[in-house]
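seq as requested:
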Amino acid sequence: MLRLYEIAIHPMKNVRQGTHNMGKFTGKTVTLAHGAGGKAMHDLIEQIFVATFDSPELSQMEDQARFSLADLNLLGDRLALTTDSYVVDPLFFPGGDIGKLAVTGTINDLAVGGATPLYLTCGMILEEGFSFDDLLIIVQSMKATADEAGVRIVTGDTKVVPRGAADKLFINTAGVGVIPETSHILANRAEVGDVVIINGYIGDHGAAIVDARGELALEMSTVTDCQPLNGLITDMLKVCPDIHCMRDATRGGLATVLNEFAQGSDIAIQLDQTQIPVREEVKGVCEILGLDPLYLANEGKLVAIVAKENADALLTAMQAHPAGKDSHIIGVVEKSPKGKVILATGFGGNRIIDMLIGEQLPRIC
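struct tokens:
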């Protein structure tokens, strides 16, 4: 059963200790009754989602969110729609959680296409026995992240499955944005002579997940790079409206995104390893586990390809924004070998960087 809502955060103290005021709602964990459509589900929606989200839209209790086409037309001439599901393990990790990840990931998928993100949906699949305290923390995190990005969560759905049928909590989010007439960012627009720019250190999210799993006795200070990028991209487009290609480097990392550009545009990308920013902690994790930071997941990194004459101004604008302060030019677009990404190593040689084969780390996002 869909319910229209917009997340709103309310201060809560010691929610992990269960000291919050739940009103009429009783119990500490989700039961199958909370997904059955009756009073228990009504109480779950009312006492968890409605009490935390609190919006005028919710009072309508319709099965869909409704928008003014006239208002959307003021922002652009095309709608952008994306969806993603989040199954990260563990749910909480250094610098973030599954809720922050879900909101951030969907916002960024819209923004890297040149769209202004406006609305998100939220579908939750809860496992029987999941903690209400953890659910509240995650929902509040989603609201805080959406507020940071200036995006509204406007409709959602909740399902409960038997114990063992899911791993605690899965989240699906869909996003709607509007693309202005001046924006034409596509994976097939890279041109020979273009410059490749990234907005900071790679591999932080993958390393943070490894740390959170506690499978290795590591002493690390790395936190996830999970962050909304729409503010940074807005500043980028002000300086350089004609960004040729742009994507966020999530699963498959930097290497996968660049291969998508090279193959889509039928060009070659030459990278300079010495210019690709990687933290020492991330390098250490990769050395221990036999991983390559070029393939590690990121949740707050974008890769942009722009004309050479626009690169310096764009880099300066990116470095002036908090989400882009560590931006670097990391490569150039060349004519051949077509469809290939070539890395110039620090030892003076070259190696081909293919797409990720298999998976380095499971349940990363």
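The chain is about 30% helix and 20% strand.
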